[in-house]
Design a protein that fits this description.
The complex is a heterodimer of chains A (about 230) and B (about 1100). Chain A has about 230 residues and is an alpha/beta fold. Chain A is built from seven helices and ten strands. In chain A, the strands form two sheets. A six-stranded mixed beta sheet of chain A has the order 6-7-8-3-9-10, with helices on both faces. Chain A has a four-stranded antiparallel beta sheet with strand order 2-1-4-5, with helices on one face. The two termini of chain A are about 30 Å apart. The chains are: A alpha/beta (about 230), B alpha+beta (about 1100). Chains A and B meet through helix 2, strand 6 and helix 3 of A and helix 1, helix 16, helix 17 and helix 19 of B.
Chain lengths: ~230, ~1100
């Protein structure tokens, strides 16, 4: 990848689903988009506009019906299912509206779970987990289980889990959607700071105007088509 | 942190939801371990029984109809350097009767034993006291049967043994039994005193009577003879057998083969002869190989005639052309006869005259057929001259040693009125000196028979040559060729080998229960996994591959499986105890008689445990295998079910359903004209196809319901049906479990036999006969003939001609289902095929095809190039005891120690002839010439009155023969009880499975309703009452119950269709009603319970929490 080359490139991406009567139902229509490394991008739009679908396609959790997606110059369509999993593990981090922490694991363990996809957690990974948890103010909660944390704390753990493998891309789907205003504001701030500190490209799908404003670029999705906000 | 940390955390966190899965795995492992351990218990029991019946006996020589010197035992004993003891026993069949109560015990084993039977290591226990004359030890079996105690007397009637086979020409057929009165000196202990001694494994211990050997030898008229040699003591059975046979080969004497080598210097010969009259083929061959031998065949002819003159009852000898007196005449034609001077004078014959011989040939059942042959006189020799000596006559019983011809009592009819004075004079002066001589080949063609075709072999006399000939004979004649051979009777018995592997059998019987437990376990695991769909989605999103996630869940499942299997294996021991207790009590019929002892091998528990782990893991793998394709986004947003089940086409299911339905109809139509097992099997297959068709149709219909998005609900019930279609896999699992359970329980129940319906029906298991009779002493005559009935004093008015089928019997292992042991040599019956063929008796389940067009019983007459003997066997015996099919062969020892091949040509369906191999009578006597007469009778009776008359007459006339008549229905019922009990067991275990299946329904209902508490709360919010919601739940799950029941019943009815009009079978409507009723009831209880549990409390809270 050259400096001028975008980290993430979407070209004429369309996503359709089969409707009940057999007709195709388009959720995304020929979306073309370039995102450079280190950028922070907010994608906004009304419910059902295809925001989450677009984020899933960017994060290799879903495949477009037509069009191309490339990350770091590599076409994701050429990847096998397992290669995509490895790619997600190595190069991407996800934060969902619901934290999706494993209730049976401690905070520390939840953060380290992504490292297990490659075997076992290394001392380096553990040190990084401690540092990041300390960074987000959870150093006192390492051995707590998700059930013992507040909503904001759980979401911060989810953010740290997303960053543990030093991804190039951090994808957040309504990260503040389930939080109160103050907590949401705090988390949004944290995401932006981590975007800078960790030099990770941040793409967030959100309804929150405040969160969107924190981002370097804002995109608006209407009826499956992307517009510059 | 490692993946195992994650697995451990998950296990702990989801412990409660895993508990159900562990319980399911435990049930499956318990059933598997328990079933396998039944096999251990049966083996252990059989081994215990073998030790009890054999004591320390390792090897045995078992002679059926021959006798050797009892001194042979002591001679062999000297050869053993070890602690091995060799003992001789005289074993005879007997019938015992209490003199006062008249209680009777048939098939008593009377054993004449020396003191060393107990002392020399044949038993581990204490030897009983020495027996005085007229006293006996008995076993508790006999004591119980006759209600005898020490000091009581009882009567025994024994079959009088005879060295000369009773069926042999001129053998005496009178005075066949001897009556003994004995006092009970003691009732022996089975554990320590070998009371139940028996060389053959049996369903029950025999009735044993032990008397002193020398006393019995004297009473039986066999001084110094025995028919059983036992080698016992410490040591390895195969090694002792090998050593004993080596010693036997070195130490046997000619007398042990009933051979006698005598010097006749006055006739210039040394003669080999036998008390059996005819020399066995191996002995004859060995003698011929000794060199310088001449074969002799002397026979009693009824008449020698020339023109109008005739001489009655004369000996005629056939000799080789090179032997005197034929050697004097060169180039004798085949029809030449040399007569002695006395005969020439009496008949007035000279060289060139015709001489006619009339003589009896013995038929199969002592029927005498008089035949004639004409020869041309080639010369006349002096009476008593060279070659014509009185020693040529064998020791014909009733003739040899009798002073006057008029006092003869031979085993054939002689008209003593024909005896003239000159005949008596000849007898007084020359005794049995032959009056005529034929070429050997001519004589053998006339009088050769199954016992042999020579009465003596003569060698040129020389001083000291006798010993040399004896040595040659002993070296050339293998004692094994006349049955003198030790066989290892211990190794096989102690293997505890059952006719069937009961472990595998009970695994099969418990299969459905295991399947039900596993399905339930699978459902519970799936429910647990579904609850964790977002977690799975998260793992996939953060970079775990589908395979990694699947493996994590599998590893978790493995721990659950191991835990379940360990618990299950432990619980399985309880299941085994339950089964063994059942087999010893309510299911005792499955084992024939006797009970089994609980015993478990650690290896079996380990196998059960591993099997349980394997089954549980496989089931878990089936539930999580599709995770490889799971989509993280869908799992995160919608859950496991939606991730797996996108709207699927139900067309494929419809096509399969239609194909299976068509297949079922075609198969049923094709099998309508079939018979027996083919028809039953065909319809069972058609029923199974219909079951598959029903299940596929249900699958398709559920699919259709789930796609019916555009349709509106017509009612709350329809809404419930739609709900059932949402979780198609769960719903179908529930329907399948119920349908398969009903199908199996009902369809298998139709195989139950009701023998009382088979009495008098030819095409049934009784063959249409009324009685099955077994005699201890053979009946030597054909009771269907007037002559035979007269001989046996049977009243023809009460037992009409043609009302009996008589069979020969060769003692062997009971191969019926009443005997758990693996039979090695099943009992053989020799039958005249035509007697059964003309009655079209019994039903053949399978027969061997052939180009000769023979069918049914006539197949027994088939000839094979390899000399195999065709046999018919009951299908249950063939399949389960012998593990043979039509066309298979088995090797069987003949009387002379050789092996002949038996080929199964037909199998009878569910017959009372279970446990025996039936071969044609002519082949039987070829292989067992010494086995005389008939011991098995099948009796026809037109009606109950005729049956009563025949029974009384036969039991009276054949009382001395120890005849025991059993109603064929009762006999068949005894065998059927085994099969019916297995069906009981299957149905009982199947019932448990159905219970588990209906519990599965309960789990599904509970799960479905709990999952949708939000939906139900919404319905409540919009105005539905609790009653309406309960009805919704009922409509949804009651539908599954009804569908499963209907599919099972319809398929089962088709499967048992042919049984409905089959004799002895039938659809058990009570069972069907009971099964269906129980399932519906338990299903309804589960639904009610689950609905009540799920709908209790504040439903609206669920809505608020959403």
């Amino acid at each position: 990848m050259t400096e001028t080359q975008p980290l993430l490139h979407l070209r004429e991406v369309t996503k359709e689903y089969a409707g009940h009567n057999g007709a195709a139902l388009a959720v995304l229509r020929e979306v073309t988009l370039d995102i450079r490394a280190g950028e922070s991008v907010a994608i906004t739009g009304p419910s059902g506009s295809g925001k989450s679908t677009l984020l899933n396609i960017m994060g290799a959790l879903d495949q477009p019906t037509r069009g191309h997606v490339s990350l770091g110059g590599e076409d994701l369509a050429t990847f096998s299912r397992d290669q995509l999993a490895h790619l997600r593990n190595r190069a991407m981090g996800f934060v969902f509206q619901s934290h999706h922490l494993l209730p049976q694991c401690t905070v520390m363990e939840n953060v380290l779970v992504p490292t297990l996809a490659r075997g076992r957690a290394t001392p380096d990974a553990e040190a990084r987990a401690r540092r990041l948890l300390d960074r987000v103010g959870l150093s006192a909660r390492l051995t707590h289980q998700p059930g013992e944390l507040s909503g904001g704390e759980r979401q911060r753990v989810a953010v740290v889990r997303a960053l543990i493998n030093q991804p190039q891309l951090l994808l957040a789907d309504e990260p503040t959607g389930a939080l109160d205003h103050a907590t949401a504001q705090s988390l949004g701030q944290l995401l932006v700071e981590l975007n800078r500190e960790e030099r990770v490209t941040l793409i967030a799908v959100t309804h929150s105007v405040e969160l969107a404003r924190c981002m370097g670029r804002q995109l608006h999705l209407v009826e499956g088509r992307l517009q510059q906000a | 942190m490692t993946r195992w940390t994650l697995i451990a955390r998950s296990l702990r966190f989801h412990a409660r939801s895993h508990a159900g899965t562990i319980a399911g795995a435990a049930v499956a492992a318990a059933v598997l371990t328990g079933a396998l351990a039944v096999g251990d218990s049966v083996r252990h029991t059989l081994r215990g029984q073998a030790l009890q019946r054999l004591g320390e006996v390792r090897a045995a020589v078992i002679q059926h109809d021959r006798f050797f010197r009892s001194a042979l035992a002591a001679e062999l004993q000297k050869g053993f350097q070890t602690n091995t003891a060799v003992g001789a026993v005289l074993r005879l069949n007997a019938t015992a009767q209490h003199p006062e109560s008249k209680a009777r015990a048939n098939q008593v084993q009377l054993l004449g034993v020396a003191e060393d039977f107990w002392k020399q290591g044949a038993t581990r226990g204490a030897a009983p006291a020495v027996l005085p004359d007229e006293s006996a030890f008995i076993n508790s079996q006999l004591a119980a049967q006759l209600k005898l105690k020490v000091g009581d007397t009882f009567n025994l009637r024994i079959a009088k043994p005879s060295v000369l086979p009773r069926d042999a020409p001129l053998a005496v057929a009178e005075d066949l039994t001897v009556r003994l009165q004995l006092r009970v000196a003691g009732v022996l202990d089975a554990q320590t005193q070998l009371a139940d001694f028996n060389l053959r494994p049996g369903a029950t211990p025999p009735h044993n009577v032990f008397v002193r050997l020398d006393w019995l030898q004297q009473k039986a008229g066999l001084p110094g003879r025995a028919n059983l040699l036992l080698a016992g003591g410490e040591g390895d059975a195969p090694a002792i057998t090998t050593q004993a046979n080596q010693l036997l080969r070195e130490g046997w004497q000619l007398a042990d083969a009933d051979l006698e080598l005598r010097e006749l210097p006055q006739h210039g010969v040394i003669e080999l002869r036998t008390d059996r009259i005819f020399l066995d083929a191996p002995a004859l061959t060995a003698a011929r190989e000794a060199g310088g031998a001449h074969t002799v065949l002397t026979y009693l002819v009824n008449e020698l005639r020339h023109g109008k003159k005739a001489v009655p009852y004369s000996m005629v000898t056939a000799v080789e052309n090179t032997a005197p007196p034929l050697a004097a005449s060169s180039d004798l034609p085949k029809d030449a006869v040399i007569v002695n001077q006395w005969l020439a004078t009496d008949l007035g014959v000279k060289a060139g005259d015709a001489l006619s011989l009339s003589y009896y040939v013995l038929g199969l059942n002592r029927q005498l057929e008089e035949r004639n042959a004409t020869f041309t006189v080639a010369g006349v020799v002096p009476t008593g001259g060279r070659g014509g000596d009185r020693e040529l006559m064998p020791n014909f019983p009733g003739i040899a040693g009798v002073d006057e011809i008029r006092n003869w009592e031979p085993g054939i009819d002689v008209d003593l009125k024909k005896i003239r004075d000159q005949d008596e004079d000849y007898w007084k002066e020359h005794r049995g000196t032959p009056k005529a001589f034929l070429p050997l080949a001519a004589g053998q063609s006339l009088w050769g028979n199954r016992y042999g075709n020579a009465t003596a072999v003569r060698f040129e006399y020389a001083p000291g040559r006798r010993a040399q000939i004896e040595q040659t004979l002993r070296s050339r004649l293998d004692p094994a060729s006349i049955g003198l051979q030790f066989r290892d009777v211990r190794s096989f018995a102690l293997d505890g080998r059952a006719a069937n592997d009961f472990g595998v059998l009970f695994v099969s019987l418990s299969f459905f229960l295991m399947a039900a437990a596993l399905i339930l376990m699978g459902l519970l695991f799936v429910f647990g996994t579904e609850q964790r769909a977002p977690q799975v989605g998260t793992l996939l999103a953060i970079g775990f591959t589908g395979r990694q996630v699947r493996n994590l869940l599998l590893a978790e499942g493995a721990v659950i499986a191991v835990l379940g299997a360990v618990l299950g294996a432990w619980a399985g021991l309880g299941y085994t105890q339950l089964l063994t207790h059942g087999l010893s009590t309510v299911w005792a019929g499955a084992l024939g008689s006797g009970s089994i002892t609980y015993h478990v091998q650690p290896l079996t528990v380990a196998i059960g445990m591993l099997g349980g782990v394997g089954m549980a893991l496989f089931t878990i793998w089936l539930t999580v295998r599709r995770l490889r394709e799971a989509q993280a986004a869908t799992l995160l947003n919608a859950g496991m079910h939606e991730a797996r089940h996108q709207v699927q086409s139900h067309r494929k299911s419809l096509v399969i359903a239609a194909a299976c339905l068509l297949g079922a109809l075609v198969l049923a139509a094709l099998m309508k004209g079939a018979a027996g097992q083919a028809k039953a099997g065909g319809f069972f297959g058609a029923g199974a196809l219909l079951l598959v068709a029903c299940l596929c149709a249900c699958h398709a219909w559920l699919g259709h319901l789930s796609r019916a998005g555009g349709d509106t609900f017509a009612s709350l019930g329809a809404m419930g049906w739609r709900g059932g279609a949402r979780r198609r896999g769960r719903s179908l699992a529930c329907i399948s479990l119920l349908a398969c359970g009903i199908f199996l329980v009902v369809a298998v129940g139709a195989f139950r036999i009701q023998p009382e319906k088979e009495m008098g029906v030819r095409a049934s298991g009784t063959g249409g006969f009324t009685f099955f009779g077994m005699a201890d002493v053979p009946v030597l005559h054909d009771l269907n003939t007037a002559a035979g009935r007269e001989k046996m004093a049977v009243n023809g008015a009460k037992v009409p001609a043609g009302s009996l089928v008589q069979m020969r019997l060769r003692e062997g292992d009971d191969a019926s289902c009443l005997n758990l042991n693996q039979p090695r040599e099943p009992r053989l019956l020799g039958v005249q095929p035509a007697a059964l063929a003309k009655r079209q008796a019994f039903v053949f389940a399978a027969t061997e095809k052939g180009e000769d067009g023979l069918r049914g019983w006539d197949l027994l007459s088939r000839r094979y190039p390899d000399g195999a003997v065709p046999a018919v066997v009951d299908m249950n015996t063939g399949m389960w005891a012998l593990h043979k099919r039509v066309g298979d062969t088995l090797d069987y020892p003949d009387e002379r120690g050789g092996i002949f091949r038996i080929r199964i040509v037909g199998m009878l369906a569910g017959s009372m002839l279970q446990g025996d191999l039936l071969i044609a009578e002519d082949r039987f006597v070829e292989r067992f010439p010494s086995s005389a007469g008939y011991r098995v009778l099948l009796v026809d009776a037109a009606d109950a009155a005729a049956a009563d008359r025949a029974r009384k007459e036969l039991e009276f006339a054949l009382e001395d023969h120890g005849l025991e008549l059993t109603l064929t229905g009762e006999r068949l019922a005894a065998f059927s009880r085994v099969q019916n009990t297995y069906l009981d067991i299957f149905q009982a275990i199947g019932g448990l499975a159905l219970l588990l299946g209906s519990a599965g329904l309960g789990v599904i209902v509970l799960r479905n309703v709990l999952e949708r508490r939000g939906e139900l709360a919404l319905l409540e919010a919009v105005g539905f009452g609790k009653g309406a919601l309960r009805w919704l739940v009922w409509a949804e799950h009651g539908g599954l119950l009804v569908l499963g029941t209907l599919a099972g019943v319809i398929s089962a009815v088709l499967a048992v269709w042919p049984a409905m009009d089959s004799p002895g079978h039938g659809l058990q409507l009570e069972l069907l009603a009971l099964t269906v009723g129980a399932i519906l009831l338990s299903g309804m209880i589960w639904i009610w319970l689950a609905a009540t549990l799920a709908l209790r409390g504040e439903l609206m809270a669920a809505l608020r929490s959403e």
